[in-house]
Amino acid sequence: MAERPLPPTYRVVTAEDNPMIRELLRQQLAELGHQVVGEACDGQEVVDLVARQCPDVVVIDWGLPVQDGLAATARILQTAPTAVVVLSAYLAGGDPELEARNAGAHAFLAKPYLIEELDEALEQAIRRFTRSKKARDTM
After folding, report:
1. What are 72-100's pLDDT values in tens digits?
2. How many CB atoms lie within 10 A of CB 51?
3. Pairing between strand 11-15 and 83-88?
4. Out of 55, 74, 80, 130, which could bridge 13 as a Cys pair, Cβ 3.0 to 4.6 Å?
5. Are 83 and 58 in contact (CB under 8 A)?
6. Given 3-state DSSP classes, what are the helix, strand and coil percentages for the chain, each rounded to the nearest 5?
7. Residue 48 near residue 41, CB atoms below 8 Å
8. For 27-67, how does the pLDDT look when each residue is reduced to its tens digit (9 = 90+)?
9. What is the DSSP letter of 112?
10. What are the C-alpha distances in Å from 134 to residues 9, 64, 128?
């Protein structure tokens, strides 16, 4: 009987201003087998942290202080291109997933979410980032 391949593991930076949610996110990522290599509590801090840590993916809360998650996403893509998942409870009006994608995010995850949805969002962000990187590299 052939063994199933292990799922990929990623180096992740998180950005969440609520300490309880930040800790829960860290625990969930660890449970999924990922390594949290940095945690930020505001938008400027996450931009700096991503540039220093060069993670595989970053999970950013939309409602960060100093610089919101969408502005931080745009800066990350300019300064240290990385796969980005935007996380938010903000769902009133408009299309938050479209807004996140327009800011450059590779995946959107609405709070509250299931741990399986977090894992799917990471996979989606990595796939989309890799595809867009390949397209840029062939230009």
Report:
1. 999 999 999 999 999 998 666 678 889 99
2. 13
3. unpaired
4. 55
5. yes
6. 45, 20, 35
7. no
8. 999 999 999 999 999 999 999 999 999 999 999 999 999 99
9. S
10. 21, 30, 10
